[in-house]
Amino acid sequence: MAFLTAAEALKWAMEIEKNGEIFYNAVAAKSADPEVKALFEYLADQERGHYRAFQKMLEEVKPDPDLSYVGIQYDEYQAYLQAALSGALFAGPDKGLTLAKQAQNRETALRAAMGFEKDTLLFFYDLREMVSEAERGAISDIVLEEKAHLRRLAKMSRIDHATR
């Protein structure tokens, strides 16, 4: 039985996007590299747009069902979910800033951003299955944008490795 409701999943998605925006803005602000700065500012703007899309979906989703009848199973599932997601690069209120502080140079910033985008994609693939049919198209569009982000980051990283 799946205990994560669409509303809960959308709230996680909003947290992911907020952390992404924080990360990209923080790295862009401290970067002396104009290419990284421009790309990360663009990605921060994209994350803001995704946040608004998920927020709109959340406003339209049905209220969470009463899952109290599942008792301890629900509590255990929530604990499992929290543990699994907290290990991901995007989870936690300060994760974006922590990642940004660790990104001391172009290579570490790009690597962190690619990891963030990969974790995000995995979550969004699952999220797409949890929302209504009408909302799946919007999630699929965001998945495509996240894939494009990953390709841009990977391309910049490959260029860096090729020029060494």
Structural write-up:
By secondary structure, the protein is an all-alpha fold. It has a single domain, classed as Ferritin (Up-down Bundle), CATH 1.20.1260.10. Helices cover 79% and strands 0% of the residues. It has six helices and no strands. It is globular.
List keywords for this structure.
mainly alpha, 164 residues
Characterize this entry briefly.
With 164 residues, this protein is mainly α.
Annotate the secondary structure layout.
Elements: H1 6-30, H2 34-60, H3 72-86, H4 95-102, H5 106-130, H6 133-162
Helix pairs in contact: 1-2, 1-4, 1-5, 2-6, 5-6
User: Whole-Å distance between the termini?
Assistant: 51 Å
Main sheet characteristics:
none
CATH topology: Ferritin
Q: In percent, how helical is the residue content?
A: over 70%
Structure annotation, total helices: 6
Number of domains: 1
Please name the fourth-level CATH homologous superfamily: Ferritin, core subunit, four-helix bundle
**What's the SSE pattern?**
HHHHHH
Give the overall shape, derived from the CA principal axes.
Answer: globular
- Summed over residues and divided by their number, the pLDDT gives a mean of 79
Label the structural class: mainly alpha
CATH class value:
Mainly Alpha
**Secondary structure: number of strands:** 0
CATH architectural designation: Up-down Bundle
Q: Which stretches are low in confidence, meaning pLDDT under 50 for 5 or more residues running?
A: none
> Which strand-content bin applies to the residues?
under 5%
Based on CA atoms alone, the radius of gyration comes out at 17 Å
